[in-house]
Input
Amino acid sequence: MRICTQQSSVTLKMSPRAPLVVLILATVAIASTQAALTTSDVLKSNARYFVINDRTGTFWQAFRYCNSLGLQLASVNSANDNKALTAAIAAAPPRKTKGAWWIAGTDLGKEGDFVWVTTQSRLGYRTGYTNWAAGEPNNEFGNEHCVEVYSYGEWNDKNCDVPRNYICEKPW
Ligand SMILES: [Ca+2]
Ligand SMILES: [Ca+2]
Output
């Protein structure tokens, strides 16, 4: 023990005494938001669906934002479309909010009669394809008139004023 202590003491004496520097690492909240999508990004992209995870809005705010990019709120007309939509959700940058994404379905015109507001065609028109979650649409509280899609691709009618991320598509 004694020998050890002495050796230790010698080592300390021989070492240059560096000043103790305490580095305080400030937690810098680096904005993890994605760069906002621009019309030029849209024009360059071959994608059909654009998942907007850097902002939220009501159904109509989502509608207008998509239009401002030369896009429209997303519609889904087949199982293939829905597959592409869920793939786009999975590939999108992470987001801070929970919940589903607005797509273009609504029954604001006539209760229970859902149309794509962008094309004025009924959900399932021609293809018969819809992908409602079990028990939906249920018009809960008599106040659900806009369609959201869950990450796994099923649809729900929801209060149009609830803030949501949303999905735009290239019109064709
Ligand atoms: Ca409704
Ligand atoms: Ca519902």
Q: What stands out?
A: The domain at 40-169 is CATH 3.10.100.10 (Mannose-Binding Protein A; Chain A). The CA atoms of residues 27 and 138 lie 45 Å apart. The mean pLDDT is 86. Residues 2-14 form the longest helix (13 residues).
